[in-house]
Design goal:
heterodimer, A: 762 residues, mainly alpha, Four Helix Bundle (Hemerythrin (Met), subunit A), 4 domains, two-stranded antiparallel sheet, 2 strands, 2% strand, B: 180 residues, two-stranded antiparallel ribbon, 7 helices, elongated
Chain lengths: 762, 180
């Protein structure tokens, strides 16, 4: 709960003193991590408040195993990342300042990363699908601002938009899935749904929709392309995004709704296939990448492919192994990302081929990230060994072919991890390397040593994963990872991994061409092209509509008036109209009304003959005033009052706007070609005739004025504590309409400010 | 009179008479606006008209004295933001029902229940909703006038930023003539 309030607190302290945001943020993250740990050890807790009972929405959160795991990751790794950023961010901003000459205290970084953390924790604990959706979108929004942190860079902005679109559009599928479940079972609560649902097409459909949202967020095939792009973010963001937030949120969602998913064999098989594809695509491309962060990004795709694969394998091994894998991967991957950031800071290089031999100059960093890399590559004495042991266990339970696939996956991991670590730290020394501050190394060291601790004392991590697995599996899980010094199938598979992995590393010259061709093919025909084409197409479509509709003000008014006039006209022609149109009689009392209407009519006709814009505006407004007077005589003082006020204001605003247009433009715009006169005339005729017929028809019906709805309204108004029917309609009976209308007003002001004032609200 | 003043808010064009009247009218107009707002439930008028009346009071000052004088003596800075505050307030009132298990836009106290009166003002949430509408309309109108006045002034002092607007307009016009 602490994490949820962290973002505003950090932003507040940051706006007071820019230097304060980092320590406050890190402190809160640390406290939140401890609080989560204590909460988990003391057995968790739950809050369930119905915040919108009429819509069946509940604020239901529970600290179960799954929630504890992801909250600990989000806050714990968040803490490490924040400590790291407290040193990294000033350096990063320094570079940016040199590049662009702008200064930026970067407080928003802390705000958004803490918002990210808070929504991650909320997402982990949420037990209600709508609540999940809310936190889900919050993470998307936070990630948008974090990825696009360097907002002056085109690339950053495009990447941020891509991440937002890919995860945001698929999030709608999550909402649709939730609504399908609600329509069928009348609840959004996940535990209740688990009890209620029966295997069938509905579960497959709704569960599938939710799973797609999860897969897109976890950057699985075919949504994988946004993740490598998101590397445009500052390094701490990448580390956090990949290990504990955003991407982890995808598998978290799958783990959360897993009790629903496992009721459908189709979905499990789909997860299996997608997981395998992602392992292959991510792994092979990672082998070809040269930029450190790109390599790690593709490795993340591949690693989460494992998790999805294991969820697809099913069974208690699958559920528990997936959770354990997330822990092991988060520790290793965040350490490796932070390493990449520190190395870049030291050498000012981002490509593996331009650095090397850093082990001698940065021994501590090399050792720490070596431990992390060993963890990722599943070497013994690291927590990673157990993740692969569990992977093999889960695969073996399903059958030998799956064990073979798991073996290949493990080999790929070993190969690209080696490539990263050896490329950076081994070989001959290239380039120069500066000393890096301790705050850039210490988090890596802590995470690295955690990887090692997990290799010896696996029980705490396993207990957490078991708890999480139990929440996903919806039944207690009894899986004990441990070292078995015997020729068990898992150990043999692990040995085979090392052997084949070494072979793959040594035979790099042989296969690298094929791998590069594969990566190139992905660029040429991959889903990213589909995304770009769709985006361009949408843009073009929007331009097309724009040119049709809003080329100029007249055209725009015509596009509204003519179609509605024709439609209404057709409707009138289609309905039988016997004595609907009656010509009433004019008595002496009506003289003022007739006079006012005559004035309005004269003014309207006079508009045709005006030449100058100023005259046009004045004549138009006099027509409006005359109509307002008519309303006053008609017995509608509210309408008359509003009409007069609005007419005054609009006249002034239009005159002011005319002043903005240069005289030359106004004069040339006043000459209207003959063809346009005819066009304008016919538009006016259609609109006027329709309005006339509709008004005539309405006024011919006395019942519409007396009795019926009108009488009922007048009766109801005092009930709603009012004497003025018009006001009570606006504020109470039809308040939803009012809200819609006034929202338009607020948006118009935003539009005016954007056009004339660079978007600053006055 | 007023329109002429708007077109050229330069010293000398607006007469002393206009300025005196504008000065005298400012406070009464705002008072009438507030009265229209709160008496809307018993008499003609509501938040919308009240917002326009209040905005007209400010606009009159702009017409009579010009932008610089008004912005020096009246706290109009940031009034445009009021429109969004008003929208938030209205939406907030609308959402009250949700939290209490009723439909959206349920107003309290319930129909027929006892209402506290302060003079003619009845304490019900619908009035709060109307206050939101008032703020929104007021903020919109004053904001729009401030923007236009600001741009006119920049234009007169000849800042280059406005050139872009001209070019665009002229270009669009040229293209349109080509088509016609």
């Amino acid at each position: 709960m602490l994490a949820v309030v962290a973002a505003p607190v950090a932003a507040l302290s940051g706006s007071l003193r820019p230097g304060l945001a980092a320590p406050v943020g890190a402190g809160i993250a640390g406290l939140a991590a401890v609080a989560t740990l204590v909460g988990w050890l003391s057995g968790g807790g739950a809050v369930d408040v119905a915040w919108a009972p009429s819509l069946d929405l509940r604020f239901a959160i529970e600290l179960d195993g799954l929630a504890a795991l992801y909250s600990l990751l989000a806050t714990g790794i968040g803490f490490a990342v924040l400590v790291y950023s407290s040193r990294y961010l000033p350096l990063h901003l320094e570079h940016e300042r040199e590049a662009t000459g702008t200064s930026d205290p970067g407080v928003r970084f802390y705000f958004f990363i803490l918002l990210f953390m808070g929504s991650m924790v909320g997402l982990a604990m949420a037990q209600d699908l709508i609540l999940v959706f809310v936190f889900w979108d919050l993470t998307a929004i936070a990630s948008y601002y974090l990825i696009g942190f360097d907002r002056h860079k085109e690339e950053s902005r495009a990447s941020a938009l891509m991440a937002l679109l890919v995860t945001g559009i698929t999030a709608v599928l999550l909402l649709i899935g939730a609504l399908v479940f609600y329509a069928a079972y009348g609840t959004f609560s996940i535990p209740e749904l688990v009890e209620l649902t029966e295997p069938g097409a509905l579960v497959t459909l709704a569960g599938g929709l939710i799973a797609v949202a999860g897969l897109a967020k976890s950057a699985q095939v075919p949504f994988q392309f946004w993740l490598p792009r998101a590397m445009a973010a500052p390094t701490p963001v990448s580390a956090y995004l990949h290990s504990a937030a955003m991407v982890a949120a995808g598998v978290l969602l799958i783990g959360r709704v897993y009790p629903l998913l496992q009721k459908s064999e189709v979905l499990l098989n789909a997860l299996l296939v997608i997981g395998l594809l992602s392992i292959a695509v991510g792994g092979i491309i990672a082998l070809t990448r040269n930029v450190m962060k790109q390599l790690l990004a593709y490795s993340t795709i591949s690693q989460y492919g494992y998790v999805v694969f294991m969820f697809g394998l099913g069974g208690e091994y699958g559920a528990m192994a997936a959770s354990f894998y997330v822990i092991a991967h988060a520790l290793s991957k965040s350490a490796l990302f932070l390493t990449a950031g520190a190395v870049t800071e030291a050498t000012h290089e981002t490509e593996i081929s331009r650095i090397g031999g850093l082990a001698r100059r940065m021994p501590l960093l090399a050792a720490a990230s070596g431990a992390a890399a060993a963890g990722l590559a599943a070497l013994p004495l690291t927590i990673g060994f157990f993740k692969d042991e569990l992977l093999f266990d889960a695969a073996l339970e399903r059958g030998a072919p799956f064990a073979g696939l798991a073996l290949l996956a493990a080999v790929l991991t070993l190969a690209y991890t080696w490539r990263f670590w050896s490329g950076v730290f081994l070989g001959e020394a290239r380039g120069h390397a500066e000393r890096v501050p301790w705050a850039l190394v210490a988090p890596v060291a802590v995470l690295g040593s955690l990887v090692l601790v997990g290799g010896i004392l696996v029980e705490p991590f396993a207990a957490l994963a078991r708890d999480a697995g139990a929440a996903s599996f919806d039944a207690p899980v009894e899986v004990e990872p441990a070292y078995h010094l015997e020729a068990s199938p898992e150990n043999l598979l692990a040995l085979a991994t090392y052997a084949i992995g070494a072979l793959v590393i040594l035979s790099r010259p042989i296969w690298i061409g094929a791998a590069r061709a594969f990566a190139r093919a992905g660029e040429l025909a991959g889903p990213e092209r589909a995304y770009n084409a769709a985006l361009r197409g949408l843009n073009r479509f929007s331009d097309f509509i724009h040119t049709i509709e809003v080329r100029d003000l007249r055209g725009r008014v015509a596009t509204i008036l003519v179609p509605s006039g024709i439609l209404v006209g057709l409707g009138i022609l289609a309905t039988p109209s016997g004595d609907v149109y009656r010509v009433g009689e004019v008595t002496g009392d009506d003289v003022p009304l007739v006079l006012a209407l005559a004035a309005a009519a004269i003014a309207t006709v006079a508009i045709i003959f005006t030449k100058k814009h100023v005259t046009l505006v004045l004549v138009l407004s006099s027509a409006g005033f005359a109509t307002a007077v008519a309303f006053a005589f008609f017995g509608a003082p509210d309408v008359a009052l509003v009409a007069i006020l609005i007419e005054t204001l609009i006249t002034l605003l239009v005159l002011g706007t005319l002043k903005l247009i240069p005289r030359k433009v106004l004069e040339s715009g006043a000459r209207i070609p003959v063809r346009q006169v005819w066009r304008k005339g016919s538009v006016a005729a259609v609109a006027g005739a329709t309005a006339f017929v509709v008004a005539w028809g309405t006024l011919s019906q006395p019942s519409a004025v007396e009795g019926g709805a009108a009488a009922r309204l007048t009766e109801l108004a005092p009930e709603a504590h009012a004497n003025d029917v018009v006001t009570v309609i606006l504020a109470d009976f039809r308040a939803l309409d009012t809200i819609g209308e006034v929202t338009v007003v607020a948006l118009v002001l935003l539009g005016v400010a954007t056009l004339l004032f660079r978007g600053r609200l006055p | 009179m007023t329109e002429g003043g708007k077109k050229a808010p330069v010293e000398g064009v607006t007469s002393t008479l206009t300025q005196v009247i504008a000065k005298v009218l400012l406070v009464p107009t705002l008072m009438i606006a507030v009265a229209t707002l709160f008496k809307g439930y018993a008499q003609t008028g509501d938040g919308f008209s009240a917002g326009v009346i209040a905005a007209l009071a400010i606009v009159l000052q702009y017409l009579a004295f010009g932008r610089e004088v008004v912005e020096r003596y009246l706290p109009v800075q940031g009034l445009g933001t009021l429109s969004w505050l008003g929208l938030l307030l209205a939406l907030g009132v609308a959402a009250v029902g949700l939290f209490r298990g009723d439909a959206l836009f349920t107003h309290y106290p319930a129909p027929g229940a006892e209402v506290i009166h302060i003079g003619t003002v009845e304490v019900i949430t619908a009035v709060l909703f109307d206050v939101g509408i008032f703020l929104l309309v007021f903020g919109y109108a004053v904001g729009a006038v401030r923007i236009i006045a600001g741009v006119i002034q920049r234009q007169e002092s000849g800042e280059p930023e406005e050139e872009a607007v001209y070019h665009d307009t002229e270009e669009r016009l040229a293209r349109r003539e080509e088509r016609a």
